Amino acid sequence: MSGEVMLETSDLSVTFYSQAALRSVSLSVPTGTVMAVIGPSGCGKSTLLRVMNRLAERSPGARITGAVYLHGENILSRDTDLSHLRRRVGMVFQQPNPFPFSIFDNVAYGPRLAGERRHEVLRDTVEASLRQASLWDEVRGKLRRPALSLSGGQQQRLCLARALAVGPEVLLMDEPTASLDPVSTARTEELIEELKHRYTIVLVTHNLQQAARVSDYTAFLDRGILVETGPTPVMFTAPRESRTEDYLTGRLEG
Amino acid sequence: MSRRRGVTITILVLALCGAALLLLVLGEVVAVGWPELGAGFRAGPADLRPELFNTLYMVGAALVLSVPPGLLAALWRTEERAPRLLEDVAGLLSSLPSVTIGLGLFVLLIATSGWPFSRAAGILALTAMNLPWVTAASIPVLRQVGESRRQASLALGASVWATAVRVVLPEALPGLVAVAAVGAARLVGEAAALLFTAGVNAPARFNWSPWDPGATLAIRLFRVGTESPHLNAQAMAGAAGIVLLLFTLVLLGVAGVLQRYLGRRAGVMDGTGRPGG
Ligand SMILES: Nc1ncnc2c1ncn2[C@@H]1O[C@H](COP(=O)(O)OP(=O)(O)O)[C@@H](O)[C@H]1O
Ligand SMILES: [Mg+2]
Questions:
Q1: Which of A15, A147, B17, B55 is the most exposed place for a label (fewest CB within 10 A)?
Q2: B84-94 vs B119-143: helix axis angle to the nearest 10?
Q3: Domains of chain A
Q4: Which CATH superfamily is domain B37-266 in?
Q5: From CA B168, how far away is CA B162, in angstroms rounded?
Q6: To the nearest whole percent, how much of chain A has pLDDT over 70?
Q7: Whose Cα sits closest to atom 24 in ligand 1?
């Protein structure tokens, strides 16, 4: 861990039709770490992720103020190249959302968009990405099969491989295990442990044990406000705020 | 008997009555036209081939002119979030009576600018009818494509238009084929908009000129059936009706097969439209 900051939000506020979803959130994510974002549903976790790759502004009525720095550069600025940003900041969604293409074409989607046409290069990238997502052993020799023929857990790892194939620095994961069975969930958690050596990860999760197991830092959001953030072991054993303690002990669910 | 079953049986009986009535009417057309059908494909007063050719020519040209821009307008609305007005105007224009489009173009082109009653004028009328219709009919088809796949594509760095081409269009293709086919069938059966524009005559000799008169099968059916002095005018109209029906059935049948094929292929197609791997 270098102590360098990869991603930082400063005074970030988001409203949808003047309904506040995030209120003045200032949070920094050190390079090469896993930051877990926890909080009751509707507290703004997904919105926070979706600002970090600028998908939030697509929602009708969205208004975003403040700043989000990636390597010190404000990505909310008007002249940010969105394609370039989104190749640096990848995303895995809550529901697996593979394209109705073959397994190969799903993973090759990003590199092809970036102009890669050489089949050998695409093949190598696809293999490397599937290996990193620990899906390779299950799909080798079946890359032409439809992605939708895979199981839910496999589809989610395929979506991860698809995001990795673009070569991001940051991975945004929005409750990636919410729709998976316990075995797939455990596998995905192991994967996150492996991936954090190469990527900076922001992991939204509903599952407090998951946050405790895989994250280095935790941020607790409540009604759009960042209540507390700090190293995960400290947050889980000695939270400073009583609201955090209430949430962690299950007295604040909703 | 339960109330539920009573309703089901009533609906079934009504549907059967409707189907029987339709079959009766269509059967009548076939019965009347059958004796003259052979003459429709030989030189002579009953020859249908000029009208058949005009129908293919004009509907084909109108589709080429109207489907791409209509689809583009629909994409502009669904993908680029163009103002709602676009959708409302397309909906309004596509529900105008087609005879008013014909009249408008008649005044503009033929009465004012000296165009002849021609295939070209007819093509413009069909294009004007089909453009807003394709736009309005494509929008719901494009909306059916899952927002989650759009977001996945954008999150991988694709632009809105790259997403439209690689994700939205391939997934919407079967539905869009249906839109194009129903649009084509509407144009094939159109008479009102063509009366004042394409005219009621077909060229005596085969040629491709857009300035020659452009009577279609539907126009012939209307004209021969109502004002021809021929003794067997009804039979000639019936023959045109049979060809028109067959034409429409074949069109929708081919579209249906294509739709099923595309739907099945969608599972293994890549974003560039080629089977990948
Ligand atoms: N596209 C949107 N339009 C309107 N309101 C939204 C939209 N997305 C989120 N919100 C609102 O913003 C708040 C935060 O939502 P979200 O970030 O999805 O919460 P979480 O992921 O923590 O459950 C919620 O009140 C939600 O209703
Ligand atoms: Mg959420």
A1: B17
A2: 130
A3: 5-95+170-248 (3.40.50.300)
A4: MetI-like (1.10.3720.10)
A5: 9
A6: 98
A7: A42
